[in-house]
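## retry 2 of 3
previous attempt timed out at serialization; input unchanged, resubmitting
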Amino acid sequence: YQALSSNYKRKMVELGGLAETVVLALSLAENELTVKLWIIKTLQHLSTAEANCQFMLDAEAPRRLCSHMNESDSTGQLLFRSSEILWNLLENTSREEMVPQLSNLECVNALKEAFTNLLLRGSRNYDRQLRNDILVISTLIAQNPGAPMIETGFSKQLILFATFVEVKSQSPLVKGFKLTYTNEDFELKKLLLNMLTVLAKDLCTVQLLHEGKVMLALFYYVKPHEKPGVLDWSVAQHEELQLHAIATLATVAPLLVEDYMMCQGNTRLLMFLEWCASNDPFVGQGNSFHGTGGRGNKLAQMRYCLRVLSPVVSLCDETVNLDLCDQGAINQLLGLLKYTSNNYKEEEIVLEIQTDILLILSTLCENDTHRKELFGWEGVDTLIPFLKLDAKKFYGGLGHHRLLFSTLDCLWCCVMGCTILEDYFLEKEGLFLLLDLLVLNQRNVCNQILGILVEFCDNPKAASHINVWRGKKEQTAANLLIGLWRQEEEELGVKHDKVGRIADIKRPLVGHFQAHQSVTPMPARCPTVAIMDVAENMRAKIYCVICKLGFENLPGLSAKDFVTLAIIRRYLDFKVGEIWAEICAELKEEKFKPVTPDQEAIRVITETFSKVGKMVVSLQTEMLESHQYQERLEEQKSYSKIQSLHKQKDMVNKSWQNFLTRTSNYEALKKAKKIQEKSIEESRSKTRRPNITFHPTDIKKLNTTIAAGRLITVESTPPELTGGPLADTELALKRLPICGGALQRVKGVKVMVPLKKDSLSVK
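## retry succeeded, writing output
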C-alpha cells in the first residue's frame, strides 16, 4: 500500500506541474544559498522523470541553472547538481529545444568559466569528471550555429587547450600546466579533439584554427608508433588518440590548405601510408570506434590516412595535386591496392580502403594525359580484377557496390582519353567485362557503364570488340542494348501497341511522368522537361552507342528488336520534335502570338516531325509483315518436309506389304513375275540387228522377282538383335544349315559359359 501510495504521489507531482513551479522559485532565492541548494536538489530528484523534465524545459530551467552555476559555493554542490540536472534534461527532453536555451552569451560564458576553473585548478578525480561533463555539454552547444562560441572567446580557449601539448604555447593560461596520464585526462584529450571537429564546421572558426596551429598539432600524430616511456600514454591509448587526431585532420585539412602544405602534409601522409604497408611489428589493438576492423593489423591507420587524402585531393588544388604526383603518389597508391588485395580478405574495412584509393586516383588523373600515362599498364592490370564482380556480392552489405562504382569511375578518369591505355584495356578483354556487368542489369551502374561505352566507341577498335562479344545463349551486344531500351521505356511508361510499334506519333518518346507535367514558362538558360529527360535515363547513351556501331548489319536481332531499332534510329529527331512542342506550348501559355513567317515555320516543323512518326510506324508495320511472311514461308517448308517424310514412309510400308504378299502367296508371286517380265520386255529395243545372237539372262520357270544367279543370299534379322531363333536351347548356333530339309541335331556342339548375355561360342 505504501509503494502504491508513493507512486500515486509521484504521478500527481508529474501531472500537477510542480517541477515548473520549483524552477520559477529559483528567482526568489537569489541571495539565499542554502535555500537555493535545496531547490536545486529538489529539481535534481524531479529531473529523473521525463514528464517533469518537459515542465522544467518550458520554464527555461537550462538557462536559469546555467546562469547561476558559478556562484560562490564552498561545498561545490551548486555546480555539480546543476550539471547533473542539465544532463538529465538532455537525456529526457528534445535536444533541439534545450540547446537554443543555452546558446546565449550568459550561459556560454558560465560554461567557459566553469570549465576553465576545473581544468586549471581542479586536482581531484571528481573535478576531472565534472570538467569532462561540462565539456560534453559545451560540445552540444557548439553544434548550434547560433551559439556565441567565438564571441565569448570559448572557441579560442578550447583550441589552445587542445593543442598546447603538441605545440608549445606562450599563453599564460597554460603556462606550467600539464596533463596527467589518467583515464579522465585521456577522455579530456579525446573530447578536445572532437571539439575541433565541431568547431571546424563553422567557417568563422577557420582563422582561429590557423592561429592555434591546429594542423601542426594534428600532424604530430601522423607518424609510426614509438615505444611509450614510463610517463606516457599506453600503446592502446596512443593508438586511439592517433586515430582520433587523423580523423579530425580529415575535417580540418581541406579548410587549411596553406597550413597543410606548410606542414608538408603530402609527404607525411605518403610516408605514413608506406609504414602502414611495411613489415613493422606494430599491430593495432582495435579497441576504439576509430579502430574498428584494425585489430592485429595497421588497416585502421591506413583507412584514416586515406580519409585525409581524399577530401584534400578532391579540392582539385593544382599545387597540392601536383606535389602529390611528383612524390610518386600514383604508383604508391596502385601498390597499396595490390597489397590490400593480396594480403587481406574481402572485409568491410579493406573494401573501404580500396574504394578511397580508386577515388583518389580518379581525381588525380582526370583531364591530365601525363598522369594517365603514369597510371599506365600496371593500373589497368590492377583494375581488371575489380571488374570481375560476382553479382551475389553486390548487395552483400560489405561495400562491393561502392567499390564497383569507384572502379568504373577510375576507369573513366584514368584510362579513357589515353589511346595506349585504351588499346591495352581492349587487349585484356576489358570491354567484354563491362558488357558482362551490363548484363547484370543493376540500375545503379548501367548508366555509368553506358557512359564509358560511349567514350570507348571513339576508339576505332572498340566497335569490333562490342560486336564480337557474346553473352548467355549467344546474346549479342546489340540485342542487349535494345533490351535495355525497352526496359527503360517500360519503366518510364512510354506508350506502345502490343507488337511494340509507336502508339503516339506526335510524342513517341514521352513517358507517363513527362506527359503529366504542366508547361511552365522558364528562362532560356533553364533546361526544360524534355532536356532533363536526356540526362535522367539511359536512352540517349544507348542511342549514342548504337550510332557508333551502325544501324545496319547488327547481329543477333529478332523482329521485335528491329521494330525497337526503328525508334532508336530516330531518337534525335523525336527529341527535337519534343522540344519544338514545348516551345509551342510555352508560347501558348504566355499568350504570345508569333509573326506570320514564324508561325508558318512552326507549322511546317510540327508537320515534319509528325510525318517522321508516321514514317517510322509504316516502317515498323512493313518489318512485321515481312517477318510474318517469312514465318509463313518457313512454316510451309516445314510442312512440305513433313509431307515428304510421310509419303516416303507410306512408300516403304507399301513396298514391304508387296514383299510379304509375294513371299506368302505363290499366285501373287507368279503374277508379279509376269508383270516384271512384261516390263523388262517393254523396256527393250524393238528393232534388232540381223545376224545377232541373243542370249537370255533369266532362268526359265523360276518364279522370283529378284535377279537370278548361281549364288543366293538369304537375308534375315541379325541374331545380334534377337539372340537367334533357338537362343534358349542347346541347339543355339551361329549359322544354321540351309542345304534343305529340317533342322538336324549336330554332334560336337559345346555351349560355352557366356561372358555376356545372348553371346554364345560354338565348336
